[in-house]
């Protein structure tokens, strides 16, 4: 224990007051030190790091899962960057199961429930899962992250019993990314089941097509220019979150009963944005043709997660936020192997 000398000229009362002050100070310093040693107390993101989830296949399309960090080379804008962190394919994930419980999903929630439970069965026991729903009342966290997959299955079943109204898809994705930000340096992904028809974004699209000429309606909407979509992509880039959309048939522009050009354009833009979410984050869009496919596709996403390596590299100019596109390329030392990941990011 450290002893603090007290001058003899100080009165007894002053000595007592000084001793109390010094004791409080020592306890405060100790408590601060203890908090600093708790890794989950405060989560910070190193924005100078670019995080990638990478899949590797051979020339026959067979998945390769036994590589090490030394097998990979990462290039940003053609310049090789040092790999500063690496996770093998078996490393656990933190996953958000994001469920669309808006009015458009009411008629097939039993199939959704069965498929989601099958998805859980295919995960690793160490994968942490959270359940978030979104509907006319906005996004809601139904179950925080847990490795208790039985609790997750129960939560999904309860969640799918209610819900109606609008579809705030991009608000829900932002909400999910915020929850994932508390998961530290774990690998992260969002599996979102939706028709893709975000209500607010669709209203913006409707305003655009209403001003377009008949000849320009099909190309009037710039799907990748919507600020809500851009915000989600930027947040996902910063955390290295991979998004796997499962697109419900109710949002398929090819299935519209009436060939109205404006409605077809809005549905087409919504589906294009789901593809953009997958492509820009290194995920994959799974289009559900028939509801019977739900279980198979959920299980396929779980299998894809188990084949991803995670790599982080240092940005060459972390302080340069010029908004320009940075192209990413990943190569594997064995020439017959092909790596796939997100194509790049905007430096914002």
CATH top level of the largest domain is Alpha Beta
- Approximate shape: globular
Mind describing the biggest β-sheet?
A: 6 strands, mixed
Radius of gyration, taken over Cα atoms and rounded to an integer in Å: 25 Å
Share of residues in strands: 15-25%
CATH topology of the largest domain: Rossmann fold
The side-by-side strand order for the widest beta sheet comes to 7-6-5-8-9-10
Secondary-structure blueprint of this entry?
Layout lengths: L11 H25 L12 E9 L14 E5 L2 E3 L1 E5 L5 E8 L8 H13 L6 E8 L2 E9 L2 H11 L9 H12 L6 E8 L4 H13 L5 H4 L6 H13 L2 E6 L13 H21 L4 E2 L6 H12 L2 E7 L10 E8 L5 E3 L3 E3 L2
Parallel strand pairs: 5-6, 5-8, 8-9, 9-10
Antiparallel strand pairs: 1-11, 1-13, 2-3, 2-12, 4-11, 6-7, 12-14
Helix pairs in contact: 2-3, 2-9, 4-7, 5-8, 7-8
């Amino acid at each position: 224990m450290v002893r603090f000398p007290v001058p003899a000229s100080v009165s007894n009362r002053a000595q007592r007051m000084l001793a109390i002050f010094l004791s409080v100070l020592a306890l405060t310093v100790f408590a601060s030190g203890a908090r600093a040693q708790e890794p989950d107390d405060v989560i910070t993101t190193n924005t100078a790091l670019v995080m990638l989830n990478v899949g590797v296949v051979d020339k026959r399309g067979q998945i390769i899962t036994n590589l090490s960090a030394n097998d990979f080379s990462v290039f940003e804008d053609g310049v090789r960057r040092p790999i500063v962190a690496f996770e093998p394919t078996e490393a656990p994930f933190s996953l958000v199961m994001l469920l669309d419980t808006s009015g458009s999903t009411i008629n097939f929630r039993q199939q959704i429930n069965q498929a989601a439970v099958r998805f859980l069965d295919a995960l690793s026991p160490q994968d942490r899962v959270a359940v978030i729903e979104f509907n006319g009342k906005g996004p809601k966290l139904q179950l925080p992250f847990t490795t208790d997959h039985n609790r997750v299955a129960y939560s999904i079943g309860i969640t799918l019993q209610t819900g109606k109204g609008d579809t705030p898809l991009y608000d829900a994705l932002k909400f999910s990314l915020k929850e994932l930000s508390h998961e530290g340096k774990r690998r992260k992904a969002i599996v979102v089941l939706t028709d893709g028809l975000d209500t607010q974004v669709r209203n913006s699209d409707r305003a655009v097509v209403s001003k377009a000429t008949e000849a320009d309606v099909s190309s009037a909407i710039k799907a990748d220019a919507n600020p809500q979509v851009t915000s989600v992509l930027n947040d996902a880039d910063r955390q290295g979150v991979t998004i796997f959309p499962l697109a419900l048939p109710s949002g398929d522009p090819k299935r519209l009963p009436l060939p109205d050009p404006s409605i077809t354009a809005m549905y087409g833009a919504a589906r294009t944005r789901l593809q953009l979410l997958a492509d820009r984050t290194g995920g994959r869009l799974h289009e559900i043709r028939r509801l019977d496919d739900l279980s198979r596709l959920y299980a396929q996403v779980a299998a894809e997660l188990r084949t991803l390596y995670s790599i982080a590299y240092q940005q060459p100019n972390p302080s340069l936020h010029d908004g320009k596109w940075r192209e990413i390329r990943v190569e594997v030392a064995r020439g017959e192997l092909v790596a796939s990941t997100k194509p790049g990011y905007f430096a914002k």
